[in-house]
Design goal:
Rossmann fold; 6-stranded mixed sheet; about 35% helix; about 15% strand; globular
Length: about 350
């Protein structure tokens, strides 16, 4: 895994953006305490920390804030702990042993966030609340995972942005649920991310192929992938293609079809999230979440809006690093990420 992550990262970027002595922030996904693929692969994070240090980084900070089901973070009260959840997932140990600095956004309190505007006059008119620790970083590396998501259909790189946000931003996101998918894409236009995010890299030797984002069927393909790009949109196109390709290979008897695909389950699930984020009244008044089924990457509302706000559909060229992936698989994915 360390070799695969290192080689793929170096094929996706030349690291000319990283100067000696700078600080890099790694954003993983640790929304729960469940191990990979419910959260980012610890060995991949360890490999990236070592690579960044080798390339000249003086500090490598790794941080996230877990999901509302396991962490309740409010101005006057916090229950649960990202640190403990990161320990449970195996991520904390990997970070510390590789020489990284773990941070947990809620640990510094409610006021340790700043309002970060997007560069478009869109759905986030007042910006999003981001953790102050990002101001200390020169660069950001995003390390998501490849997973199904009961509310949005998939949890990939663009969706990982939610882990930055303070509870009030997450409430706005889920309360105004009709545009949740589009707000996901626009949240990635926050100025900090536009100015500092350099690389997106994820591992796909295991996938959470049903339900998600924390629980579901763990699928292990015969050939695993590491996917990397300087573009979060390009990354997610390939990552979603990989998820859909593998979902097609799961026997029907192993698919949790109703819970995985039901629009009603998604609607009720989002109302429950709003209740956790605020109260029952807001839950009952919140907008209806509309979940679209995903058969191809062209049906994904997050990506479809990302094409608009990021300036079009990326022209993707798949590079088979070290020629370790069968040509037939590369050809299949290539066909899935190019419009017919």
């Amino acid at each position: 895994m360390e070799a695969a992550v290192t080689q793929t990262a170096c094929a996706a970027t030349d690291f000319d953006w990283l100067e000696q002595g700078q600080t890099v922030f790694i954003k993983p996904v640790n929304n729960s305490g469940f191990p990979y693929p419910a959260t980012t692969h610890p060995s991949a994070i360890s490999a990236m920390i070592k690579l960044l240090r080798k390339k000249g980084a003086q500090r490598v900070i790794v941080g996230d804030m877990s999901g509302i089901e396991y962490l309740r973070f409010f101005k006057d009260k916090t229950t649960g702990s990202t640190r403990e959840l990161m320990k449970q997932s195996g991520m904390l140990r990997a970070i510390e042993e590789a020489g990284g600095e773990p941070v947990f956004f809620e640990a510094d309190g409610w006021d340790a966030f700043y309002r970060d505007p997007t560069d478009i006059h869109g759905l986030w008119q007042n910006g999003v609340m981001m953790p102050q620790i990002l101001k200390t970083a020169d660069h950001i590396v995003l390390m998501p995972r490849c997973s199904r998501h009961v509310l949005t259909g998939a949890s990939l790189g663009l969706k990982a942005v939610v882990g930055y946000w303070r509870t009030d931003t997450r409430l706005e996101y889920h309360y105004h649920a009709r545009s949740l998918h589009e707000k996901t894409a626009e949240g990635n236009r926050a100025q900090t991310l536009l100015n500092k995010q350099r690389l997106v890299i994820s591992t796909g030797d295991k996938l959470l192929a049903t339900f998600g984002p924390d629980k579901g069927l763990i699928h292990t393909p015969s050939v695993g992938l590491v996917i990397a790009s300087e573009s979060v949109v390009a990354h997610d196109m390939v990552s979603l293609a990989w998820l859909l390709h593998n979902r097609d290979r799961i026997p029907l008897k192993n698919q949790d079809t109703f819970l995985d695909t039901s629009p009603t389950v998604a609607k009720i699930g989002n109302m429950l999230v709003v209740k956790w984020l605020s109260n029952l009244k807001n839950s009952l008044m919140s907008e209806k979440l509309i979940k679209n089924d995903l058969k191809t990457i062209w049906e994904d509302r997050v990506l479809n809006h990302a094409y608009q706000v990021f300036g079009g559909i990326p022209d993707i060229h798949l590079e088979n690093v070290q020629h370790t992936v069968p040509d037939t698989l590369v050809s299949t994915l290539d066909g899935m990420v190019h419009p017919q």
